[in-house]
Amino acid sequence: MAIRSSRHRTVAVDIGASRPSEPRRWPWPWYVAALAGPLGVLAAGWVVLAALTTVGWLTSPEAELTDALRLAADLLILAHGAPVTIAGQAVSIAPLGLTAGLVFLALPAASWAARQAAGQAGHIDDTGDIWADAEAVALRVGATFAGVYAAAVVIVAASLGVGSWRVLVGGLVVGGIAGLWGASKSVGHDPTHTWPGWLRAVPRALGAALLVVLAGASAVFVTALWLGRERVTDIVVALDGGVPALALLTALHLAYLPNLLLASASWMLGAGITVGDQSLVTMALSDVGFLPAIPVFGAVPVDASPASFWWLVVGVAAGCVAALAVALARPRARFDETALVGGLSGVAAGLLLVVLCALGSGSLGSDRLAHLGARVGELAVFAPTLLGLAGMAAGLILGLVRRPPRAAGASEDAPPADDAPADGAPPADDAATSDDSAAADEATERTTLPG
């Protein structure tokens, strides 16, 4: 006789389950956001500058409001590297702080346009995530953003009577950096994912070396301000413009702060700086004449000190950092290879500094202050040489330190056991690199955006 169990199974069924709701999308095509973004960035930048110049207009009874608004537009064009005329003087030194501000202001706009492009070009899976080709989206949105941004800058410059090839180049550079950076970051695209492992370390090495130099330049600048604090204070007191003038001076110095740091880096690496025609400030001498009543010029040293040469250690450290960042990415390289790679990394970092210092130099007129900033020609010799030699030495030392010891009695021509590949098999490093590259290609060929 069969006995029926008194136990019962309880099964819960969710009859209200449904697919994830489709995310809310931008009602217009993605290129509308890519067109409106650059225009909004330039408009926002002009509004901020106009607010500052209007403060100056309010404190100057003889000034006209139209002149203040024109000055804001001139500063906006100057931030893209194009020379403008301010108060009858030709000004070509770009405020890199303002340039960096425009780039970071444009990043959210480029990111938003990229997300809309990915949502419209991709497809939604069962979980609500959006799948799209990240590389294609980043390139398409970045190029569109850069083109629109450059065209808008050229139109504004033409309306002001500024005609220079530097307007177009500056607009393309600023718009391209913001567009490609913002779009790639938004969709998770890494342009270096197909590079070899050691080559992917090069951008990190250059960035690390640049950070070391900027840290040292900041220390130089702060030290100069401290030593010349009395002269700086006297200039501020002599101007006697009240709170509005102090606020404008602060904004002016912040706009040119990257330029000041790059000039300090040029002095720190031995090339020196110029603060006008027939003036020279280096570690060995300081020869300057009359300077305008701008507070930061009070930090210019009046004489040289032999102890200043210790600042060259910062350049040596930057070259070592660049070399180690690349050499450590090649664990099986010989000591001669690490020395070569380290030297090339240091030279590349030095050349990057030369380019940045050239961008941060210029003029504040055509007479006395015809050239301000780094001595680019001399820096093109000092920076790659100093950082390159330091990088080569660091790479050589690293290669010798981690060189594996030979086994006793082993043949000099026999390769190490770890490096000997099996018959018909590729070397371990090549196989690992191939597998890593293939995995990276497969993983980043398409990207998913949370719905």
Automatic annotation (TrEMBL):
Q: Does the keyword Membrane apply?
A: yes
Signal peptide region:
none
> Keyword Transmembrane: yes or no?
yes
Q: Where are the transmembrane segments?
A: 28-52, 86-107, 137-158, 164-184, 205-227, 247-268, 280-302, 308-328, 340-361, 381-401
Please give one Pfam family short name: DUF6350
The protein's matches in InterPro entries, at most eight in alphabetical order, are given as: DUF6350 (IPR045931)
Compositionally biased residues, Low complexity: 407-441
**Region (Disordered): which ranges?**
406-451
Listed A to Z, the keywords are: Membrane, Transmembrane, Transmembrane helix
Superkingdom of the organism of origin: Bacteria
Listed name of the protein: Uncharacterized protein
What organism, scientifically named, is this protein from?
Tessaracoccus flavus
